[in-house]
Amino acid sequence: MTVRTVLQSADITRALTRISHEILESNRGGSDLVLLGIPTRGVILAQRLGRILESIDPAVGESLASVGSLDVTMYRDDLGAQPTRAPSPTQLPASGIDGKTVVLVDDVLYSGRTIRAALDALGDHGRPRAVRLAVLVDRGHRELPIRADFVGKNLPTSAEERINVRLREIDGIEEVSIES
Amino acid sequence: MRHLLSTKGIDRATAVGILDVAEDMADVATREVKKLPTLRGKTVINLFFEDSTRTRTSFELAAKRLSADLVTFSAKGSSVSKGESLKDTAQTLAAMGADAVVIRHSASGAAHVLAQSGWIDAAILNAGDGTHEHPTQALLDAYTMRKRLHGVASRGRDLDGLRVTIVGDILHSRVARSNVWLLEALGASVTLVAPATLLPSDLSTWPVTYGYSFDAALDQSPDVVMMLRIQAERMSAAFFPNAREYAREWGLDDERLDRLRADTMVMHPGPMNRGLEISARAADSPRSTVLEQVANGVSIRMAVLYLLLSGEREADQ
Amino acid sequence: MSPTTLLITAATLPDGSHTDILVEHGTITELGARLSRAGATTVDGDGLQALPGLVDLHTHLREPGFEQSETVLTGSRAAAIGGFTAVHAMANTSPVADTAGVVEQVHSLGEQHGYVTVRPIGAVTMGLAGTQLSEIGAMAGSRAGVTVFSDDGKCVADALLMRRALEYVKTFDGVIAQHAQEPRLTEGAQMNEGALSGELGLRGWPAVAEEAIIARDVLLAHHVGARLHICHLSTAGSVEVIRWAKARGIAVTAEVTPHHLLLTEELARSYDPRFKVNPPLRRDEDVQALRTALADGTIDIVATDHAPHPMESKECAWDEASFGMVGLESALSVVQLAMVDSGLIGWADVARVLSTTPARIGRLAGYSDPFAVGAPAQFTLVDPSARREFAVGQLHGKGVNSPYLGRTLPGRVVATVHDGYATVLDGELVDAATVAQNARVHRG
Ligand SMILES: [Zn+2]
């Protein structure tokens, strides 16, 4: 087993900053924007993106301030194939998601099934104007017609490899590595 | 979790875990779309050998909110009551492809027999077996207590230090048994109160204290008073002389209600005999959790169905 | 080769001595070393324990009326493979064995099949209803020669009726075998009453319901000067009552079942109805008290309470299941495990509690001095060193409701000789036609 670090702390911060700029650009500002992280690490990333957005344009702060989480456990299609997962809470902004631009945030985009589940879950909570997807790493191997709008880094991998995303808030260290 | 047959032997982490999943399930009831796709394609069979509209309905709602296909097999009046054995029924349900069987039966241990028999491979959920256990009732009771105590901050919490007094027909109560084991696992302490005729003859292995006087128990200022339903047929079997005497000694009447702290919870698994084990004022007072218990029952049953039907079935025996 | 000339070489007798045994025409004709007889069927008895033919005082053969559970033939075969040469068939058949007609029928079926002596037990009351005495005298005087009377399955609960029954059977040197169970205290009872029954939510069967009846009945037996036998004693308290009664010289005898010597109520935790039996399995303290009492003679005998049931009576919830276990095929092994291998008794005691004494209580002739020249040849040969995984294949009656399935039991019956001919050879039952033929020859 070999482990190779592909992103270090500074790389991650740089990637998130770039994504923040791209989000603001594509949304033509920060209005009616909702960032929803997919547990567990997507939630951390969404919170960081929210802070960066605010620091770029403090005016965004008032209209944005909408960072939440969206649990997709109950919408997965692989319940019988995986060990039982404990669901995490879903927290949506008090003003809801109707008519908003929702940016789903996750750490790794792989088969696309998690995002499929997230889209289904979102539909049961309301009707956003548009849904975007931001991921820290896109490792390929899609099984569904899903792509990310904002990508921190494309990492071509083989299916046997594992991508480990470690974030300070949860793991104590900050890096992205490939295990093969 | 392979089956849910009893709360005996459940550990605290598992119990808290179930209550936490139920928190998420409860959120669904507040949404526009009160339904999750989670158990799409799974078949849940409600096998009720005993009438119980409330429990049956609660499980039905839980299964439907999770998008399972649900069939209620009310064994009363069907071939089952005409001598078809548990075995034949189980094999029939297996042939129909049941993924989970929710069983209510008048015989203690019926759910165990079903789970161990090899007649059927489905997850077995005990919805009340004779005078043995009723695990989802205890779970919803614990959930209700935790919610009252901790509100939105309930997740991850146990019931450490909570003092619960259970009053009534302990001997015949599956609700009491399931509560005793579950509350012990969650760190609560339990006191049982009943006439000696309605307590098991030997409580030495139960993690409880017990007494005969309701008033003495109230002197201890319990955090929760759980009243059990008393059945009229117990009178004819000489467990107590008559309803009047029972109500006077072991009923939660207005006078006893007024002795409770304002934040003491009054619980009852229902259906209530108003005026017998509980006065109307007690049942309807702000201390009463009766309606919360009903609502929470659906969340708990959703959580249990989810936990039984997700995950690799073979992996966690 | 004469089927009824048998030579057993170098077997060990209950007293520990070794001998050859020659059997001719139904009788032991020679004992000693290096015997030989041309044409004899020879069994190598080296390493085998010889025991007098086992006598069961408590067997449910189910015929007539419940032939789907057992018949006289299938029950007799189960008995023979278990080392028995005589069984006492309980009266709770349909019709009930409360007339000379029924007991003669059962008796003669036993004779025809020839695996064991079948001695019918007569009902104490008509239809086991507990209200009116059955035709005790007619049954005693019938060809079946009934000496033991019992309403087993039910208790003779009415004190006056019990008194009269005790007095009346004195007339015929009979004995009442009481199933001691106070009926009101055990309504709907499912298992031993105690902490476990409370936990499992199964209706309790309190020890006092047995002890109260035994206490009453030993006093009644004393009062009227009659013999009393107590079936399937199951509690430490019952042992105390019997000990007290015997100390006062009351003519009471008591039996214990193999399962009450080995198994405890803990098995009910599984809710597996194979462990549902009446009286119920009790606490470990009770098991220990029963073992001690059997060893010191307070309890006189072991009897199987062999109670076969069809599969469907056990494939259901506990409350709905029938009471009872089959026991003939496993009894000797269980006694070896619980009593001999644990050092409490020796093989001479086994002979006493499973043969000599039950025969004496039942007034069954021919068992008082079993290994003597001239004695009727009723014996069994056991390999005590064998170990067997107890499985359905070892059950030869119709019932498979054994609590020992899946357990390893010690000992194996290698041969059983009844009325001078083999019913079991090389650990296998001799076929029914041969046995019936030999029985016919023996009767002459
Ligand atoms: Zn009996």
Detailed description of the structure:
The complex is a heterotrimer of chains A (180), B (317) and C (444). Chain A is of the alpha/beta class and 180 residues long. Chain A has one domain: Rossmann fold (3-Layer(aba) Sandwich). Chain A contains 5 helices and 8 strands. The longest helix of chain A has 18 residues. Chain A is globular and about 45 Å long. The relative contact order of chain A is 0.21. Chain B has 317 residues and is α/β, with parallel strands linked by helices. Chain B is built from 12 helices and 9 strands. In chain B, strands 7-6-5-8-9 form a 5-stranded parallel beta sheet. In chain B, strands 2-1-3-4 form a 4-stranded parallel beta sheet, sandwiched between helices. The longest helix of chain B has 20 residues. Chain B is globular, with a radius of gyration of 19 Å. Helix content of chain C is 30%, strand content 22%. Chain C is an alpha/beta fold. The chains are: A alpha/beta (180), B alpha/beta (317), C alpha/beta (444). The interface between B and C is medium-sized, with 29 and 25 residues. Bound molecules: zinc ion. Zinc ion (ZN) binds next to loops of chain C.
